[in-house]
Structure formats: structure tokens, C-alpha cells
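TL;DR need C-alpha cells for one chain.
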Amino acid sequence: MNASSVALLVSLVAARSAAGAEIANEATLTLAGAKRAAAAAVTYAQAHGAPGATIAVVDAGGHTIYLERLDGTFAAGADISIGKARTAVVFKRPTRGLEEAINKGRTAMVPVAGVTWFTPLQGGIPIIVGNQVVGGIGVSGAASAQQDEELAIAGAEAMQSAATKLGRVEAPGVTHVSATQVAKAFGEGTTGGTLITAPGYRVAASRRDGAGEGEVHVTDTDIFYVLEGSATVITGGALVGSHEIAPGELRGSSIEGGTAHRVSKGDVFTIPSGVPHWFKSVEAPFHYYVIKAIDQDS
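>> reply
TL;DR here they are.
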């Protein structure tokens, strides 16, 4: 091989290496994968008495691959489920967190719908394989927003489980949230954001800057770990001005009676489902993790 041929070969290799560094290969969901996810969601719906549901599955770009509507589901569920799935992909997070942020006062997010896919309603879950979003699943029309999300999670986990069997991810059900993501979640909305959503539980990075409302979670047991600050929490008693803000979620201005608990950095305390509780006073900054264990029999 002469000098000019060597120079040409080196130039071609260099050009290909440069192109390789500038172009990324992204995995995306196939039709077979979309059908697997939808089938798992349907199975969950039938096993848990869902009165109906529309399941939409999109690829990594947010484009619809597969749609299945159970008998008896309202027609608009198709459009809503697609919107939820697309939103989960675009934002790379469950749509529950977006809905919670808006409900807690971050209304500046509403105009986002004018510039990108945005259906900030609980029930959209990104499908993640090997730490990469390969698609999304959205559900609308089940018994409640929470059940919409449970169906979507069942579908997403079916794909993750299938990938695990092929050796593509570390282990089923493993979730790693980076320190950067955790720090960001503490600053979301008015009380923090959700870190992990899975069947049976949720994990949130939470903060409180002052007293809150009285609360009752009909199906959720709260497990708190205090990272910073201190607060007085009232448990038991009766909600004042009790009203329902969502299925299984009651709120009131305060609590009559009950027992006072002083909690501070390093403390762990639990509040079983159905027990009224109220952050009566807070010494900010007050940061804590909360695990919401969902009672599957409720």
C-alpha cells in the first residue's frame, strides 16, 4: 500500500469516527413490544375490576404504535390516553407529577400545551429499558386516575421485565434516581415532586415551608423520613371542613383533637391509611422523603 493509499484510508477512518461521535443510536419500542405492554395492562384491568380503559402505546418519539379500547370505555379515552403516553415520553417522567404540580399552583405550566404534546393527567408512564426511554404508555377510562396509572405501570413493567430476561437491564423493578434528580424534585411545585411510581408504592422528595391542610389518605399509608428541619404533626381526631379533592383523598382546614408529635431530622414516622394528619407548624426548611404504600385491597 503506497503513501497516498494509506493517507486516504486514514482520512476515511477519521471521517467515519467523527460521524459516529456526532450521531447517536436510540432504541425504540416495536409493534411487538407495544402489544406486549398493552396486553399486560388489559390483564391487570381484568384482574382488578376496571370498568373500562383505553390503552395507548407510543414510540420513543411520541408517535402512536398501538391502541386498544376495552368495551364500555368512553370514546374520548382514545385521544386522552395517547396524550398521556406522549407527554410521559416528552417529559421522560410519569404524568402524575405534572398534574400534581399544576394542582398545587404551578399554573404557568398550562400554556405548554401550545408548544408541545401536553396532557398533564395521571395515567401516563414512560417505558424505560436500560435507563433509556424507548416509548410510553397512557391509560384513560379506568375506575379512577390512580387505576389509570396502575394499568399503565403494569404495561410498562411488562416490557421492562421482558428486556430483563434478554439481559438488557440490571434486574426487574430496580430504579436508580440520581442525586441531581432528587435535588430537582425537592424544588418542584409547592411541596416537592414524585421520584418513583410503581405498583403498590410511590416515593416523593417533599418539603414544607409552613403549616398545611388536614389530610386523610383512604388507601395510602405514609412513611416519612425527615432529612432537615422540624415540625409538629397532629394525628387522629377529626378533619375540620372535610371535603374530597380526589377519589380517596380528603382535606380540611385543620384537625380537632388528635395527638401532637414533634418530629425532626433523622426521625421516621408512619401514618396508616385512613388516619387524619396535619402539619400544624413547621420550622423551615423542612425536607423529608415520603413513601406512600398503597393498600391493594382497598
